[in-house]
Amino acid sequence: MIFSSKTRPGMGAKTPWGIAATASFFLFAAPPALAQTATPQSLLPCRKPQFPFPFRHGRRCGRSPTRTPRSTFSARSTFLPQNAAWFQGPVQQAFESADLLVTETMLDSPATLEKVFVDRGMRHDGKTLRESLAPLERTNLEKGLSNLGLPAETFDAFQPWYAGLLLSLLPLKAAGYDQANGVETQIEAKAASSGIARHPLETADYQIGLFADLPEKSQQRYLAEVLEQLPTLREDIAKVVEAWKLGRADELAKLLNEDESDELMRKALITNRNRSWAKWLKTRLSQPGVVFVAVGAGHLAGKGSVQDQLAKAGIRSVRVQ
């Protein structure tokens, strides 16, 4: 999905919540315990699919037009299998006309990121993860790890949120979803080769903190949901990718966002960030230039989406593809 802003009047199955939030995020650097397994590496905000649907964010009605081009193109992103094609049509045109690429974050220092994960993702209370869980959750965790061919103690040193996130990403790695195929990986390479400037909406430390600062009960609930959905995760993600390719925003909203029962987690990972990004976009519209913005699929679908937040600020979004 692409959204663009011009200076003119005028806009079933449940996927684990961490995936909804972090499809745009990252598949992190592998922790030491998983160094020999097929661990995620880095999945950030990507962008558009084979059949994208762009949108244009217009300025508030009643504003007089200016001679200086001001555009903000926002693209829906998800992680992709190897054979997904997406860089074409309005998406390609929007990117090639941009002066600035904006993504959710920038991971230019793997060593720094690894340190943040050690600080925020590892346990420091003297307990193992399994010792902190209720008997049923502990059994489910051990079963889930066993089904993945991993020892029961693999995640003992991790906080619940980190264990849940890694658990949800490992099967995707095995199914062929790879960092190298991610839209953001490709788009960042294109930006580097063409000299387009970069700007992150958030720091990696802030994004990690969104999970790490959740109450332990919310973290454990998230881990339990991932374990519950693990057997059908590949099929569920395939549905997400297919909906994304076909530009079915309503279906994406159901798959990614609507079944989340933890309102605290929803606000932290989706709603509050959408509001903040919309505020940034509104400010950016008053400046010259063309900006291409790539954020995760869960942020551009359903109630409270980025375009909903923009509408509250009087900025109209128009689908252009």
Short structural description:
By secondary structure, the chain is of the alpha/beta class. The chain has helices at 17-22, 89-96, 110-121, 129-132, 135-147, 160-174, 183-194, 204-212, 216-229, 233-246, 249-258, 263-284, 306-312; strands spanning 2-5, 55-57, 70-77, 100-103, 197-200, 289-296, 317-319. The chain is built from 13 helices and 7 strands.
Give the arrangement of secondary structure elements.
Elements (H helix, E strand, L loop, with lengths): L1 E4 L11 H6 L32 E3 L12 E8 L11 H8 L3 E4 L6 H12 L7 H4 L2 H13 L12 H15 L8 H12 L2 E4 L3 H9 L3 H14 L3 H14 L2 H10 L4 H22 L4 E8 L9 H7 L4 E3 L2
Parallel strand pairs: 1-2, 3-6, 4-5, 4-6
Antiparallel strand pairs: 1-3, 2-7
Main attributes of the structure:
alpha/beta; 7 strands; globular
Uncertain parts: 1-14, 16-56, 58-69
Query: SSE order, as H and E?
Result: EHEEHEHHHHHEHHHHHEHE
Radius of gyration from the alpha-carbon trace, in angstroms: 19 Å
Instruction: Report the count of strand segments.
Output: 7
Structural class determined from secondary elements: alpha/beta
For the biggest β-sheet, the strand order reads: 5-4-6-3-1-2-7
Task: Please explain how this structure is put together.
The chain has a 7-stranded mixed β-sheet with strand order 5-4-6-3-1-2-7. It has helices spanning 17-22, 89-96, 110-121, 129-132, 135-147, 160-174, 183-194, 204-212, 216-229, 233-246, 249-258, 263-284, 306-312, and strands at 2-5, 55-57, 70-77, 100-103, 197-200, 289-296, 317-319. The N and C termini lie close together (8 Å). The protein is of the alpha/beta class and 321 residues long. Strand 1, helix 1 and strand 2 (55-57) form a beta-alpha-beta unit. It has 13 helices and 7 strands. Helix 3 (110-121) packs parallel to helix 8 and helix 12 packs across helix 13 (306-312).
